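Any chance you'd type out a single protein's sequence alongside its tokenized fold?
>
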Amino acid sequence: MLLFLEGIVRTGSVTAEAVELAMPHSAFSRQLLQLQAWLGILPFVENRRGMISTADVGRLAEVLGGALTGFTMRWK
């Protein structure tokens, strides 16, 4: 569930990340609602420019992004 979080923070868009992961937007939105329930906070604030992560979610996405980068580098 957390893998898509980094992508939303990076792209600023649920739609862009859904396309990137080849997931239907509706499935992606359900994942986002589950994440919100699991965290107990609003992970993003939506504005005209897209989805803006909260500070805590932004830090979590950085950690996830670093872990994913390290993981993919080991498999190359």
User: Anything to note?
Assistant: The first strand starts at residue 44 and ends at 47.
